[in-house]
Write a structure and sequence with these properties.
The protein is α+β, with helices and mostly antiparallel strands. The protein has one domain: Creatine Kinase, Chain A, domain 2 (2-Layer Sandwich). The protein is 46% helix and 11% strand. Strands 1, 2, 3, 4, 5, 11 and 12 form a seven-stranded antiparallel β-sheet that branches. The chain has a three-stranded antiparallel β-sheet with strand order 6-8-7, with helices on one face. Helix 1 (5-12) packs parallel to helix 14 (403-425), helix 3 (78-95) packs across helix 12 and helix 14 runs antiparallel to helix 15 (429-442). The protein starts with a helix and ends with a helix.
Amino acid sequence: MTLLLNDYIAAFAQEKHITSLSQFGRGIERETLRVLPQARLSEQPHSERLGSALTHPNITTDYSETLLEFITPVSYAPETVIAQLEDVQKFTLSQLDDELLWPMSMPCFVEDDDKIPLAQYGKSNIGKMKTVYRQGLKNRYGSMMQVISGIHFNFSFPKSFWQSMQTVEQNTDALDDYISDKYFALLRNYKRFCWLIPYLYGSSPAICSSFLKNKATDLPFKKSEKGYMYLEYATSLRMSDLGYTNSEQSSLQICYNNLSGYLDGVKNAINLPSKKFEKIGLKVDGKYQQLNSNVLQIENELYAPVRPKCVAQAGEKPSEALKNRGVEYIEVRALDVNPWSATGITVEQVRFLDIFLTFCMFEPSEILNCSEQATCEENMDAIVVRGRDPDLLLRDNAEEKSVKQWGGEIFAKMADVATLLDQANGSDLYRDVFETEAAKINDTSLTPSAKILASVVGENKSLIKTALDRAIEYRDQLLANDYQEFTEQYFVNAATESLQEQADIEMSDELDFDAFLQDYFS
């Protein structure tokens, strides 16, 4: 049955369905660099006091020893997920010696990217594999790109929601198959409209000049009086060609129309040879330089602003988990770190994402062909480098529209979704957030990127000093707070248990590393 947005809103406003809109699952992964009070990268390894980066459930590392990643469990209230993140950061800061957490997406001053240490995960085969993967990333793209930080927002609808959806649509498919199909419908709409995310929340229009050292770019950078490089209308340089993009992936045809097509596309990409990466070599002087020379070493290398996800079991690849159990949640990956928040993301942003993703679920979602998907990506590319340009036109199917026109149309549709979520949650908080974000469509000066450039260019302030001052403020604020969702003892126990778990994994290895890799990729 084909339904329109208003049909879903009317159906879910009914008492028997509306409670399913109050139990969204949410989790956050926040990346941040450990920096010294001089705004340089810490040279200290990941502290054992934080536990094992391989096995700790909440505190790990991403690309580098100095790039922390904080992970919250699934929770069902926006306030809870932010409180969890605050607790994780409070404990981490309590274990760091005079180090700070960098509050921006683009890195601080980096004198030499060869000094950025690869993350280490111990002596086990899986630990070695994680480090070799990062060695491959370094050889392929350089370390500077890999220490850009972001926020990943994990989101799921509860089972009761899917049961209501099937009832409303009079659908009789197997529930797991139905859920995967509907998540892919959401993903297609996300790709159509996700340019809104960096426009509303992009916070990286300017960078330290050290980031561009020896890096060719066609972007028309200007320089502030204090030497910072910026683009006049940029929103998120993190999402531009300077950041998390991969030219080798540009030819990949990853389909978002259904689960089987998506999995086929990922599988083909993992097995697609790259002449460029082949030149790096696999082993040089007995040391692995990458896991393989294909376009993707492993699935995690697929750079995308959103991913379908399923919780993987021990020894299971992400694509195997999806194939075995279908889509459980989606991972939104287009968020810059919010420099005005101690946690890098606010509860208000979480609520807006609730609205946006529910809209993407309820809005009719046609199949995306390759040409239409390319147009979506071109819109995103344009927004991140010139999203506040009044002359910018985006393409909505065959029609060209300004950000103000198209954004206004999307927000007009989302208004009733915000009202519905307030009705479900007994609040007016969603409408408040909605109105705040809608104002940015009509007034670009309200966007985070515009505010940063007003400071760096208009007021000639130091980007690094401003970020450092905030890092100090956030450290003091978090350390002064009481624990809310966890306890200090929880983190102490988790650190001890994770170190033991790593040791157990190392003791259980039976294959040598070469045989382990061969078995993994077979």
